[in-house]
């Protein structure tokens, strides 16, 4: 039973994929609202974990490095 988490994760991915294929007529404003809600939940979770950190400098450096790497994909060399 040591792979239970992996099996559950895989099954939920398959179920989510099937639901996504079936539910194609979701209004755009509902999609936007749900995505904003998920984003807010991720931000709250990240803040909670960041405040629990014993070394806040690592949290700050991680945010800076993540921001730089995230923006690096949009750089264009002309």
From TrEMBL:
The keyword 4Fe-4S does not apply. The chain crosses the membrane at residues 6-24, 33-51, 57-77. InterPro entries: DUF554 (IPR007563). Keywords: Membrane, Transmembrane, Transmembrane helix. Pfam families: DUF554 (PF04474). This is Membrane protein.
């Amino acid at each position: 039973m040591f792979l239970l988490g992996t099996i559950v994760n895989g099954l939920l991915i398959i179920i989510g994929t099937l639901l996504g294929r079936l539910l194609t007529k979701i209004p755009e404003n509902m999609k936007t609202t749900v995505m904003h809600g998920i984003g807010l939940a991720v931000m709250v979770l990240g803040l909670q974990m960041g405040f629990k950190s014993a070394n806040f400098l690592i949290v700050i450096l991680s945010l800076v490095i993540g921001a730089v790497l995230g923006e690096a994909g949009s750089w264009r060399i002309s």
